Amino acid sequence: MALRTAGSVLVVFLWSVAVVLGQDGWRVKYTTQSICALKGSTVEMSCSYTYPSGYTVTTTFWFTKIVNLRDDPDYKGRVTYRSDTTNGHTLKITDLRESDSAEYKFKFITDQTGGKYSGDPGVTLSFTDLQVKVTTTWWSTTLTCSTTCTLTGNPTYIWYRNSKIVQENSSPSYTVDLKTEDSFYCAVKGINSPAVCECD
After folding, report:
1. Does the predicted TM-score (pTM) go above 0.70?
2. In CA terms, which of 29, 113, 158, 171 is 20 to 30 Å from 83?
């Protein structure tokens, strides 16, 4: 039996229960504190912020390692910011890489000395690959598309048998006859063509 896995580009939109951080009117509210995503996927993390009256916000940015992601060469061409009129901010990272695994924080700076705030802790982004786990009994074999962390966004798993879709739903498992020489492919339903990831 030939087994292969393939991870497709997965866009993760996060609008979960908010996490509020801050004191004395200074706050950053993240939509989630953890994301698990596949290589090559696109992720979005969002937050909103508040601050005491009498201040004017002059600068806002997301960062890791104290560096504004827009200025970090490791993220060049892969990072975009989006904001709205209610102090909501979204960070979008495309073409996810293993090195992107980190804690992402949002910071805003005002026009007054000492008038700045960082939301801490931030959003932890974890990288994972798809793997196939094989469970065999005397009458059948169950293939399970697994990851090292739980993928964010309730993804849809797709199974291919000899390049043809045989199962397309939310289940990461597929049961086959024990004796078969067919090839099987596991993927996550996404936007672009599957990324390469093989196992024997």
Report:
1. yes
2. 113
